[in-house]
Design goal:
Length: about 550
């Protein structure tokens, strides 16, 4: 591995130049899509192609800046930082070239950037064959954390405890849960309740473990990553739903609602589910149509939801419903209703409460992410009392905002899920390539294998460090765009990394008995849940970038 101290400085300078070209492209596209500080929806839709590329470029630039801020002085993690930054800049360069052509922008500054002699020099030094071989040798011998992050002693202790639990309790059950499509058993849920995993986002005043009036994002990321490394479907995703619902309650719930629900959520009784997506609307939250009709003492729900994860086992559903029948109200006509129901491990249920109506649910068969199970829900004249409208009367029409407050945390938590799966896949790939011999030598001895492993490790390290960095900033600012950026990058990275891990296993990787096959199908869901990749890129990241540019 190279130890040239000027490499980091060169990478930072090149990154600054690329950032300048990116900023200019964002400004140019923003001006074409709006005026007087406002964006035109039709113009935005027409610019979806370039917007998508700019959103991805922004996520890659964010991660590259993060790994170059304070890389290790020497050794493996410094090499991985330089490798990722180099590959990210290569990707961003290609995206900006595409944007310049498609949007008819001046490409001269970008061509001048590419002609800088330090660019090919950095690529040779940080991402050339010799660098990849040296990084892989160090990776195979490493006993240190890939992508180290600075956390408090309390967070480090919790991370280690949940890693042990994941290794000793979750991992031995994960294959059976996946193979037989089982619901997460109490042998996993019971100890996790005792360990306080469901109260990580809930302040101590309401029975959780978060300090003050905000959650401990670093703790949530560390615990989620540890559990996801053992199994995404059997443990790693358990925190997502209480994370979203807790943040929504803290953002908009009445004090009575906080006192009534948060301590119970923190104790894991009841478990939670989020009923937002609808069959005809997907990620288009503003068009949601589940009808809530006001009646004496409450509301009647009629309509369908889909992809409601853990709805069977959950005893509390956060339901986004339309309380204003005028669809022209868009997202301002939405409210959140809290629906209580019996918990069941069955793949189908039919609940008819004393208040009247009916709620039916049926699990959707999926290729992966088993254990949690996602349900289709049908509400028929289902009664919900006024006391269960989030925020009470003042909360009517504010469901979109409360939901978005929850989704920021959910996206950070999903980024941690992705890094946990990546850690597991990289570990399996390293072990297999060292043990497997082909053509007379270990698989890890071949240059192409080394290239794959080094790039996998660099991507994991960058996503991990960026997730923690964004999580820390989330405590002091809105962070909505950055949370979306790292969710976008980490989830796609989990797909890429698990794909390479499976490929390195050859035929054995395609066998269900091999853990990497499960990692691969589990990882595929991450770019869809908690904000589909396309919606996240266009409606959150690109739109946010353009709004800032016009401000």
């Amino acid at each position: 591995m190279t130890s040239d101290p000027d490499l980091v400085d060169a990478a930072r300078r090149l990154l600054d130049g690329l950032q300048a070209s990116f900023d200019a492209a964002v400004q140019a596209v923003a001006r074409r899509c709006g005026s007087a500080g406002r964006l035109d929806p039709a113009a935005l839709d027409a610019a979806q192609g370039v917007s998508y590329e700019l959103a991805w470029a922004s996520a890659e630039l964010l991660a590259a800046r993060t790994v170059l801020q304070a890389p290790a002085a020497a050794g493996l993690n410094r090499a991985l930082a330089l490798l990722f930054a180099t590959e990210a800049m290569r990707a961003v360069q290609g995206r900006l070239e595409s944007v310049a052509i498609d949007a008819d922008l001046d490409g001269a500054p970008l061509r001048a950037w590419a002609a800088d002699p330090q660019w090919p020099a950095l690529r040779r030094a940080a991402a050339g064959p010799a660098a990849l071989t040296a990084a892989t040798h160090a990776l195979a011998a490493a006993e240190t954390e890939i992508g180290p992050v600075t956390v408090s002693e309390e967070v480090a202790m919790a991370r280690d405890a949940f890693r042990r639990f994941g290794s000793e309790v979750v991992a031995p059950l994960a294959a059976e849960i996946h193979a037989h499509d089982l619901t997460i058993p109490e042998t996993i849920l019971g100890p996790l309740r005792e360990m306080g995993v469901f109260g990580l986002s809930i302040p101590q005043a309401y029975g959780g473990s978060a300090p003050g009036q905000h959650d401990d994002t670093a703790m949530m990321i560390a615990v989620t990553e540890a559990l996801s490394e053992a199994s995404l479907g059997a443990a790693g995703s358990l925190i997502t739903r209480p994370e979203i619902l807790s943040r929504a309650l803290l953002a908009g719930g009445t004090e009575e609602q906080k006192q009534a629900f948060l301590p119970r959520i923190a104790a894991g009784e009841p478990l939670c589910a989020i009923a937002m997506t609808e069959p005809d609307h997907g990620s288009d939250v503003a068009s949601l149509a589940l009808k809530a009709t006001r009646v004496a003492g409450g509301w009647r729900l009629d309509g369908a939801k889909t992809w409601c994860t853990f709805a069977g086992k959950a005893g509390l559903l956060m339901v986004v419903a339309r309380t204003n029948p005028d669809k022209a109200a868009g997202y301002k006509g939405l409210s959140i209703l809290l629906v209580e129901k019996p918990s069941t491990e069955n793949h189908a249920f039919d609940f008819q409460p004393q208040g009247g109506g009916r709620l039916r649910g049926k699990a959707i068969p999926t290729i992966g992410y088993r254990g949690m199970h996602s349900y289709e829900l049908a509400f028929e004249d289902f009664f919900v009392p006024d006391s269960h409208v989030l925020g009470g009367e003042a909360g009517l029409g504010k469901g979109f905002y409360f939901n978005m407050a929850g989704m920021v945390g959910g996206r950070m938590q999903t980024s941690a899920r992705a890094t946990g799966v990546m850690r597991a896949a990289l570990r399996e790939a390293l072990h297999y390539t060292q043990d497997r011999k082909v053509f007379g030598q270990p698989l890890i001895g071949f240059p192409l294998t080394q290239s794959k492993l080094a790039h996998m490790a660099a991507r994991l390290a960058a996503c991990r460090q960026t997730a923690y960095a964004v999580g820390n900033r989330l405590e002091a600012a809105d962070g909505r765009i950055e949370a979306a950026q790292i969710k976008l990058l980490a989830c796609r990275s989990a797909e890429l990394l698990t794909r390479e891990a499976l490929q390195l296993h050859g035929g054995m990787g395609y066998a269900e008995e091999t853990p990497v096959s499960r990692y691969f199908v589990d990882a595929r869901v991450l770019s869809i849940f908690e904000g589909a990749e396309e919606t996240l890129a266009l409606k959150v990241i690109a739109r946010g970038l353009f709004e800032k540019a016009l401000a």
